[in-house]
């Protein structure tokens, strides 16, 4: 295969890698810019908050909304010592996240557990993790997105890929351009 024949394939693969980055792009990078300026609303069956410890737990049909962002879970823990949110952990069967992106597309993600480490700009989806944008999707038992670098890690964190349920599955459809 000549280099001239390889270039279109390489460009196509590169566009798919970039699309994968957009699929799991977290709220602050490609989410609707105006969402960050909207108030956060939390609705739950119960809540326990300790301002001195900087810790809150919301349980039972928890729904968080901020602009177009919507997160639903059974339980959400917020760690915010000195009134600065450091980490958010959501548990559910599944936790669901959906949001409109700046480009007008919608992203939907779900997993058994979602962890957002705010200072590290790190989003981790664990257990039946699935991210969908349009028809394109990525699924795995583990999906991690490092917001600062754009790096994506997916698959079994222990690298024990003998079990077919631990493998990464990605489906991308050709663009209409």
Q: How would you describe this structure to a colleague?
A:
The protein is mainly β. Helix content is 14%, strand content 49%. The protein has two helices and ten strands, in the order H-H-E-E-E-E-E-E-E-E-E-E. It has helices spanning 3-23, 27-30; strands spanning 41-43, 46-50, 55-66, 69-79, 87-100, 106-117, 122-133, 136-146, 151-154, 169-171. Strands 1, 2, 3, 4, 5, 6, 7, 8, 9 and 10 form a ten-stranded antiparallel β-sheet that branches. A hairpin with a 7-residue loop joins strand 4 and strand 5 (87-100). The chain is globular, with a radius of gyration of 18 Å.
Q: What is the class in the CATH system?
A: Mainly Beta
Contiguous uncertain segments of 5+ residues: 1-30
Give the helix proportion (percent range): 10-25%
Global outline? globular
Whole-number total of structural domains = 1
The total strand number stands at 10
The sequence of SSEs as H and E is HHEEEEEEEEEE
* Class of secondary structure makeup: mainly beta
Largest beta-sheet details: 10 strands, antiparallel
Distance between the termini: 25 Å
Tally of individual helices: 2
CATH structural fold name: lipopolysaccharide transport protein A fold
